[in-house]
Write a structure and sequence with these properties.
The protein is 28% helix and 24% strand. The protein folds into five domains: 2-69, Phenylalanyl-tRNA Synthetase, Chain B, domain 1 (2-Layer Sandwich), CATH 3.30.56.10; 87-283, Phenylalanyl-trna Synthetase, Chain B, domain 3 (Phenylalanyl-tRNA Synthetase, Chain B, domain 3, 3-Layer(bba) Sandwich), CATH 3.50.40; 292-381, Phenylalanyl-tRNA Synthetase, Chain B, domain 1 (2-Layer Sandwich), CATH 3.30.56.10; 399-609, Bira Bifunctional Protein, Domain 2 (BirA Bifunctional Protein, domain 2, 2-Layer Sandwich); 626-714, Alpha-Beta Plaits (2-Layer Sandwich), CATH 3.30.70. It has 19 helices and 32 strands. By secondary structure, the chain is α+β, with helices and mostly antiparallel strands.
Length: 715
Amino acid sequence: MNISYNWLRELANTSLAPRELAERLTMLGLAVEGVHEAGDDYVLDIDLTSNRPDCLSHLGVAREVAALENLRVRLPESKPKPVAQLAEEFTSVKILDADLCPRYAARVVRGVKIAPSPDWLVKRLEAIGQRAINNVADITNYVLHEMGQPLHAFDLAKLTEQRIVVRRALAGEKLTTLDGVERELDTQMLVIADAARAVALAGVMGGEDSEISEATEDVLIESAYFNPDSVRRTARILGMRTEASNRFERGTDYANVLRAQERCVALVCELAGGVATENAIDVYPRPLKQPIVSLRPERVEALTGLRVPTAEIERILTGLGFAECDSVSTSEEAWSFRDGIPEEMPVNLHSQMSFVAPTWRVDIEIEEDLVEEVARHTGYNKIATELPASGIAGEYQPSELKKRSMRQAVLACGFDEAVNFSFIDAAHDGMFELLPAYAEESKREDNFVSLSNSIIEGATRMRPTLLVGLLESVRHNFNHGTRDVRLFETGRIFASAPTGGELPLERESLALVATGGATEENLAGAPREINFYDLKGALESAAAAMNLLPLKFDEASVRHLREGQTAAISLSDGKQIGYIGRLAEAVAADYKFKQAVYVAEVDLTDLLEATQATVLYTPLSRFPIVTRDVSLLVARRVTLANLLQAVRDEAVEHCREAKLVGTYEGANLPEGKRSVTLRLEYRADDRTLRDEEVDQMHNQIVNTLEEKFDAQLRV
C-alpha cells in the first residue's frame, strides 16, 4: 500500500519527517518497507496484515498518526451543489440478495464532461502508482485511496431502463469486464444488473457495456458494502484481483458508504462540471451493528506487562475512534463523523469499560483486541522480558530433565544442535532403514505419511527419520566450505498407522552425524579424521548423562550404512533401539559426499522410558590401583565388546575395570588378525594387593581370553 506523505499531512498535520514517521508507524504494527521520493513528495510503502483493511487508505493511516501524536483527523470540506431533483426521478435500486449486499447507494450527476484530469490529480495518483484515465474514473480512484471506499461510475444512458438490480448471477450468464475479457459466471456470484443484463461484477470490476466514455453526459455513482466472503470467492474463481476486491474481501466500512459517495460526487461536480441530485438512493435493508467490547484496565498489564493509566487507555482508544457505549449511541445516525471519528468522547474511570468498535475496525471482537490497541500505541518496545506469573509451583517433567542432560553431554562432545523441517521430499522414500519401532510399518508400501497440501514445494512426506534433514545440513556446510561437521538433532518422526483413518504414529528420535577432522580446542588443524568411535563415544556419553545402563553395540547389516562398519544399538535389556555406522557409498554418492560420513539414530522415546541405573555412594578407596596391560592377537571378527564382556563374565574378585589401550593392524601380523591391547585395573577395598595376587588374577583372565577367542599372547 503506497501512502503519499503530503496527502497524509492534509488529513493529519503530522510534525514528523517522512522517515521518522515511517519508523513510528512500523513500531505501531504498520510495517513501512521503504520510503522514496516522488517529486516534491515522499511515498511510504506499507506492508499491511490482512486484519487491517482500515489502513488501506490515507484516512485509515491518518487515524493512526492522529492517535500517535494526539491530533485530530481533518477531512476536506466538499459539498456537491445539488439541484432540486431527487435521485428517484432518474434511477431506482433494488437488492434481491441482501445477504451478499447489505447496503447499496446510488446518486446521479448530470451534465458531466469527460476529459483529462487536472495536473494536481494526475500527479497525486501517479505518486502512489495509479495511472490516470479520465476525470471521472480518476476521481473514483482518488476517493478509493483517500477514504478506502471503492466506488464505480456507470454511464446512466447505457443502463436499460436506468435501473440497478443487485442479484446473484443467472446460470450460464456471461459478462465482459472492463479488461475486455468475457467471463462465465455461476449462481453464487453477485452482480450489478440493469433491467436486462449484468453490467458489473459486484465488488470486483465493472462491465464493458456500461463504462463511461467521452460521450457520457450522465453518470450514476455506486457506493456499496458487499459481503467479504462473496467478493473473495468471486475474485478467486475468476482469477481477478483488483484494488476494489482487495478492500471488499477484507471488509470495508459500511458506515462510510454515503460519506465517500458524497466526497466523490462533490469532486465530479467540481472537476467534470456536473450537477448532482439532491439525495442518494440508499438501500439498507439489514443495518449492521458494530460490536460492543468490554475492557478491564488491569488486563492490559496482565497480558503485556505494561502499566498504562486508565486515562491514557481512554486517550488511545478514543483517539482511534472507539466510543464508550453507555454514553454514545451505537446507531451511526447519532454520531458526528465530520472528521471521521465520533466527536463526543466522555471519560469513564470505572474498573470496567465498554467500547463501541468503530465501523471501520472489522478486526475488533474481544477484550484482547483492545489490549493490543493499547499496547501498540504505548509501545511494544516497552514490554519487558519476564516469565508470566503463575499461582502454582512449576516443575520439570522427568523426560525434560533427561533431554537437557543428554543435550549438554552431546554439546560437550563438540556437536552443534540442528533443527530441520518435519517435511521431506518423496525422493528419499526407501533410502533409509527405519528405527526398529517402525520395523513392521516399514514393510508396508503405504508406510509413509503424505501431505495433501504441502506448504513447501516437493516436500510431501512427514519425515520417518531425522537423517534426511541432518545430511542436507551436512551438504549445505560442504557447499559453503565447512569440511568438519558434527551435528545432532532431536525431534519427532512419523509412520502411517496400520489401519487407515487412524492418526499417524509418532516417536521421538535422536540422530547424530559427524565427518571431517577431529578438531580440538586451540588447534588450527585436526590431528586425525573422525571415525566410528567418536560418534559411538558421543552416544555413550548421552546415555550416561541420562543415567542409563551402558548401551550394547552388535554387528549388523543396515540398508543405508556401510557393510562391516555398522552396529545395531540396544539397551541393557537387549531391546534394539537404533543403528550407528558409516554412510553407505550409494547414499554418500547421492548426496555427492567425497569424505567419510558417520551417522547414528536411536529411538529417543525408548531411551526416555529405559530403566535408569541405580546410583550408589561408594567412598574413595584408601588403597592403590594396580594396572596390567595385555596384548592379544585375535581374529578380526572378535570385537572389543566380546573381549570386555568375557572379562566381566570371569568375575575376578578384585578386577575393577578393563579398558581399551589400542589396536594394531599391519605388517608382521597374520592375515585376518589384529592386535588388541587391554588395560586391566585391580584393587582391594581392605588392603594393598601384592604382586603375586595380582599376577594370579591377571593370568586367570588372560588364560580365559586365550581359550575363548583362540587368542595368542603378544610379548
